[in-house]
Specification:
mainly alpha
């Protein structure tokens, strides 16, 4: 996309697409962290790490019900 823009608009500032995407990937989570209570964020981070381990175990034993339950719990904890 950056190459197309740069070729079509030679007189304008070129777009470095990968850099712009990386900036968004870093900036968006940082902006959202500012909106939350730090104590709640720490608890959420701990919960997500625990859920990641649980999901890995559920996948390793190939238990669809536990996989679905873990996914549901993860998304509910983020809200």
């Amino acid at each position: 996309m950056g190459k197309i823009w740069n070729k079509s608009h030679p007189g304008e500032t070129p777009i470095a697409l990968l850099r712009a995407l990386a900036q968004c990937a870093v900036g968006a989570p940082l902006d959202s962290i500012k909106l939350h209570d730090p104590a709640r964020l720490l608890k959420l981070l701990q919960a997500l790490r625990f859920l990641e381990k649980v999901l890995g175990l559920a996948i390793s034993i190939k238990d669809k019900a536990l996989i679905d339950r873990t996914k549901t719990t993860t998304f509910e904890s983020i809200e």
